[in-house]
Design brief:
Helix content: 40-55%
Strand order of the largest sheet: 2-3-1-4
Order of helices and strands: EHEHHHEHE
Structural class: alpha+beta
């Protein structure tokens, strides 16, 4: 069986504070290709990694506005041009009658865009990743916190990277092999 090339190194911690300190130390050392895994959100680590949820709000807002304009425009066009019905002498383009469907379509478009935008920005669905096979990684969904340093980073050297990670006092440092 052939040995796959190294994908990077992973350090495992038992608390969010050491993970945050490790991410901070890696950033200060100049690492740019790193990832953190945890069983729940760690805002300080996410901030250090440059992760932001801001684009999702703008995506949802834009999609909601587009959905609202399309719904109101379609309702107006159908009521005025395609199927005009005079009910009690009211105008054909009575916009208050269009508001419930416009609102609901805007919410639908915003929710769908937020879901699809989140999936796209997170690179999901990702069914397989070499980090999933690192020793002990299965506990990340329970009670472990991991810092992954990628072999694609210019600073990566197997020995010096392992020494750097061991200096952060992890529970374990594991090599992650590519697929």
């Amino acid at each position: 069986m052939t040995q796959h090339p190294a994908f990077g190194l992973m350090a495992e911690f038992d608390d969010p504070e050491p993970l945050t300190a490790a991410v901070r130390a890696a950033r200060e050392a100049g690492w740019r290709r790193l990832e953190a895994y945890s069983p729940f959100p760690v805002p300080e680590a996410a901030e250090l990694l440059g992760v932001s949820a801001a684009p999702i709000g703008f995506i949802a807002l834009g999609a909601g506005a587009v959905g609202a304009v399309l719904a109101a425009g379609t309702a107006w066009y159908v009521s005025v041009h395609v199927y005009p019905v005079n009910v009690g002498g009211r105008p054909l383009n009575a916009w208050p009658a269009f508001m419930p469907t416009t609102y609901l379509v805007a919410i639908l478009w915003a929710c769908a865009a937020a879901l699809l935008g989140m999936l796209a920005l997170n690179g999901l669905p990702r069914l397989n990743h070499p980090a999933f096979f690192a020793r002990g990684f299965h506990r990340v969904s329970e009670d472990r916190f991991c810092l992954f340093l990628s072999a694609e980073d210019p600073l990566y050297d197997p020995e010096s990277t392992a020494r750097f990670l061991r200096g952060l006092s992890p529970l374990r440092v594991s090599e992650v092999r590519g697929a």
